[in-house]
Amino acid sequence: MTVTTVTRQDVVDFLYREAKILDEWQLNEWAALFTDDATYTVPPLGDPNADATKSLYYVHDNRARLQERAERLLKKEAHVEYPHSTTTRNVHNIIVSNLDSDVITVECNFTTHRTKREVVDTFIGRNEYEIVLENNGFAIKSKKVILNLDSLRPHGKISLIL
Amino acid sequence: MDQIIRDNTEKHEFLVHRSVFSDKEILARERAEIFNKCWLFIGHETEIPELGDYKRKKVGGRNLLFVHSQDGEIRALYNTCPHRGALVCRENEGNSRVFRCFYHAWSFKNDGELVGMPGKDGFPEDFNDEGTKNMKAVNRIENYRGFMFVNFDENAISLDEYLGNAKEYIDLVVDQSENGLEALGGVQEYSVRANWKLLAENSVDLYHGMPTHKTYFDIKQAQDPNLKRVKLEGKGIELDNGHGVIEYVAPWGRPVAQWTPIWDEKFKADMEEMKVKLADRFGEERADRIANYNRNIVIFPNLVINDIMAVTARTFYPTSPGYMEVSGYSLAPKGENEKHRLARNNNFLEFLGPGGFATPDDNEALELCQEAYNNNQEVEWNDISKGMVRGEGNALATDEVQMRNFWRQYNTRIQESLEKEAALK
Ligand code: FES
Ligand SMILES: [Fe+2]
């Protein structure tokens, strides 16, 4: 895959693959999708462009932190996700821009259902990605998860990688 | 059930009856005897710094409007229209001189006074002479060093008296800044499917630190090879009126002024400088306490101020015995340098909040307790006796005296009301 041959379908397939490996709890493989300078963020509700010095994000990971996040969740002592919850991630309304530039930008809606101990929690919102080409494949340079919720009730937590 | 607490100093036994976590009548009694009578945290004064600033707040089951009125006073208005009841303000926050109820278009100044209504000729001239058609304010609202509280009991003792010697610990938190603390935006509104008292306990429980948060400490050890053994050492202390605190040293960094390897090397010098400044202001001993000691404070019944890897305040309220709504705040020195602020937030998010590496595991622990209280009928008592063998004055931070103190206060309030009722029968 080179810059000139990348198609929208390639990007869509990449998003589906990310969703699938998260649903399969292949979290190291998920972390490997990111570039060395990548970020993974979940901004405060209702304020997707909040200034991180003035407002508290839910998640504000650099590359090292997202790796720790992935590895932690695979441990038995990450109690909140042990035994692992069952998740179903759907991505839709995918809009791909700047296909022919160095940084491809992608927006999509997502719905992530998490079920554990007979309770289903549903996270809904919009993802914003910056994607680059690296080693003949895609790599995520940034992923921002904008939750379209009024509060984290009744979910109570963002223990999953969204 | 004749007793909800079994407190036996001689036998070093302290038991809490599990019905208090699941019984609806107990919850009704808590509302009447605790949430309607104690000082409850509404927010931080810096959330509404300018005239006209307002924020909606849920406190003690009420819908309040926390507002900085044009006369300079901070008020808590009941967010309900005196006409027919509709919620007057529907925005979560903003700035306004006037609040207008959309239903019949009555409008109110930001101190609650009725200033406009269509069809005035249909009402008598003295219609609002008594002020009964103004938006009503909570009569008791008081401030301690920026932390604002309301009390729905007009005859309550002052906030100052209520906080008592807990003020010493709040002072240690606030004194880390020369200009006071400010609340960050993005208050985290979440929930736990568990009884509210379990979060009060959990927030001052150091005993669970290692087993529950092992993955966090593993990460800290990987970041800092010099961190041979994780040490959590200090004291547990009972305070006035059911408040309690644990004060201890821990291996994580503190934005005032204990460096940690996830931060820029350059901050090391900044931290040294901060410590010198603290020592100038307060002397070596107090400066050491402010900089190097952690404090988890519980203010009875439902405020926690944790001065740990960052400063967080959380308040929580039960909507049913098995479900609470939590609001989590981050507090930081006013005017803090931007790089330090980011480092602080980085430290906060590693452990705290719904997306942190620790708080979700706390939620899980609480929810598992709640779920297993289905067995209350046969398995009746919780044990909260750790450290009693040492005597309450010698408790370690990993002991439970600060929780027993909470429960003793709780018991006084609930038991008294039970007894009063029994006497009437
Ligand atoms: S209910 Fe508010 S104006 Fe009628
Ligand atoms: Fe904890």
Task: Briefly summarize what is shown.
Chain A has helices spanning 8-23, 27-31, 63-73, and strands at 34-42, 59-61, 86-97, 104-116, 119-134, 137-147. Chain A is an alpha+beta fold. The relative contact order of chain A is 0.22.
Could you characterize what this model shows?
The complex is a heterodimer of chains A (162) and B (425). In chain A, 20% of the residues lie in helices and 40% in strands. With 162 residues, chain A is α+β, with helices and mostly antiparallel strands. Chain A has one domain (3-147): Nuclear Transport Factor 2, Chain: A (Roll). In chain A, a hairpin with a 2-residue loop joins strand 5 and strand 6 (137-147). Chain A is globular and about 45 Å long. Chain A starts with 7 loop residues before the first helix and ends in a 15-residue tail after the last strand. The mean pLDDT of chain A is 96. Chain B has 425 residues and is an alpha+beta fold. Chain B folds into two domains: 40-143, Rieske [2Fe-2S] iron-sulphur domain (Rieske Iron-sulfur Protein); 165-415, Naphthalene 1,2-dioxygenase Alpha Subunit, Chain A, domain 1, CATH 3.90.380.10. In chain B, strands 13, 14, 15, 16, 17, 18, 19 and 20 form an eight-stranded antiparallel beta sheet that branches. In chain B, strands 6-5-4-7 form a four-stranded antiparallel beta sheet, with no helix packed on it. Chain B has a three-stranded antiparallel beta sheet with strand order 1-2-21, with helices on one face. The longest helix of chain B is centred in the last third of the chain and has 24 residues, at 401-424. Bound molecules: FE2/S2 (inorganic) cluster and fe (ii) ion (FE2). Residues 81, 83-86, 101, 103-104, 106 of chain B line the site of FE2/S2 (inorganic) cluster.
